[in-house]
Every structure is written in C-alpha cells, then in structure tokens.
Amino acid sequence: MGRDELLDEFDEAFADSMDPTGLTVLLSGQRGMGKTVLLDAYRHAAETDGWLVITESSSSGLLDRLTRDHLPRLLQQYSGNPPIQLESADLEVGPVGAGGSWTDRYPAESTLRSQVTELTDALAPRGSGLVLSIDEIQAADVEELRKLGEIVQYARREARPFAFAAAGLSTPIEELLDHEGTTFLRRADHHNVGRVDRPDVRTAIAQTIADGGREIDAQALDRAANTIEGYPFMIQLVGYHSVRNQKDGGPVASAAVAAGIDAARRRLGRHVHTPALRPLSPVDRTYLLAMAQEDGPARTRVVAERLGVTPPQYAGEYRRRLIRDGIIEPAGHGFVRFTIPYTGDHLREHAAHDALGDMNGHDSADRP
Asked: What is the CATH number of the domain that holds 349?
C-alpha cells in the first residue's frame, strides 16, 4: 500500500469510528523509513477529528505515567465529575489560615480500565475518543503491553472510542508478536513501512524543491532520485540542501544536487548512522567493517573469513544480533546488506579517521 493510501485510511479511521479496523494500528520498519512520521500523521488525523491523544514512549513505568499523570489530567478536563474532593479539614486557624487535606479524585491506585472507561464515556457524546500512541514499542515491557492489550480488547467489546497506535523496528516487532502477552498486536492493522518507490521519490523531491519556490531540471532530478535509494529520511534533506546550493535563481542543476547530496549524507551520518552504531559492541562493529569492504551485499562466508572467527557459527550469532537491531538485513541466500544507505561509506570514513587519529597519537607519543 502506498503512503497516500495509508494516510487516507488514518483519516477514515476517525471519520467512522464505529468500524474498529483502523483503531489498532502497528507500524514496523527499519530506521529512517518514516514510521514516526506516519505515527505523527495518525495522531494528527485523530486530533483533526476532535479526538484526544496521549503520546508516550516505551520506557519502563508506562502504566504508572498513564494512570498517575495523563489520564487523571484528561479526566479533570473532560469528565463531568469534580476533579478533587475534600478528604478532611482542620478547623484550627493558624498563621496560614484554615488548612485542609485534599486528595485527587482519581488517585494513583485507580485502574487503567476504569479511567479509560470514564474518559471514553465522557468523550463519546461529543463524537470523539481517546488515542494512545507509543513509539519504539519493541522496547516496551511485555507485562505492561499485556495489560494495555486487555484494555484494548475491552474497548473493542464495548465499542468504546479508544484507539491504540504503535511503531517499532521490524525484526524485534516480529519477535514481540510471537509473545503470548501481545495477542492484541497480532490483531492490529499491521503496516510494514519500507522504501519509497522511485517514481514517488522523484515526485517528492520535485515537490520539496517547488515548496522552496524553485524548479529542478530532469537530469538533476534523476541524479537525486538514484542517490536517495528510496530512503525517506533523505528525500527532504537532499531537496532542501540542493536548493540551498543553487546560488542563482535558475532551476536546480546537477552541481547543486551533488553538493546537496554531500550535505544530506553528512546529516544522515550525524542523525542516523552515529546513533544507530553507538550502542554496538566492538565485535559487532568489526563485523560491520568486514561487510563495509564490499560496495554491495556482502557474502556471509566471506565476512566470517575476514573476521577469522572459529567456528564460523560465531559470525552467525553476530549476524543475527545485527539483524535484530535493524542494522543489517538478509539480501538473498548467504548475503547481507546494510539497512541504512551509505552505512558502509560511513564506517569506512570513520575507520580511516580513527586509524589516522591512532597514528597521530602514536607519532606524538614517540616524539622526544
């Protein structure tokens, strides 16, 4: 399914909330494929239709944050019940006046289900509902997801206006779906977000440049589309930097696109490559450097030989771990490739830089 069709589905989900199909959505894909952008679009579609949206991370304590912060706050705003109640009062008047001990009407021990029930009861007559969205869901605590799943299932049985949308990395999501505590995610409207088709890339680049009040010649547009390799994160970067590098008022030409591509790749390195590679172990990085010696997909047998590991199965363990982390992916029998464009270039450049730094450090230490 194209992204425009998916955005249309998001709009329809809230225009006709009696159809629960689009009220549980799961987006999976590799880094930089636009999962978070689509999750934002889902939230925007909900807000446009008057729904309330809670945006959360998958870090530990999710349920506490929902029951102690988000939901009590929304209930105070939208429920017809008084937000606080007087628990006791001290009639003694002192220097600061009469005191009182107040407690929230929705204390921390209130259950998630009762809060969601009360809030959706208040919202339904208004023709709206509640959305909970979670990014990087593969990092969530499975027990917390199980409890959230129970709420989603209750909401579906009772036809409540409660939507759940989540996004995460492909391989961990597949593992998560196999867990017995995530049945509700298996029933979600699951969209695997992949690379953008080349014709759509060309259209998107041309539109980005048109938004900047410029045009681009056909040869330059083809060069930009070929370089982007269907990677959504690069589309706006290349378009934006190409416009910036066209100094005169004419159409954006190939030279400006070439400069724009270089700038976009530097941004890709800082904002995508570096954060993705930083948590990896030295062994994982070594595996990737062995892959980076190839311009295209790397043969796993050759990578193992370059690593010099015995038995070769050890290299297979590194491979599986890197696939799970979304750094590489299978590319046919016995081959792997990087999921993010230009990862090999980034690794080679930094390996050369690090080696040069080591040499310089060694030279300076040896100087008298």
From this structure: 1.10.10.10
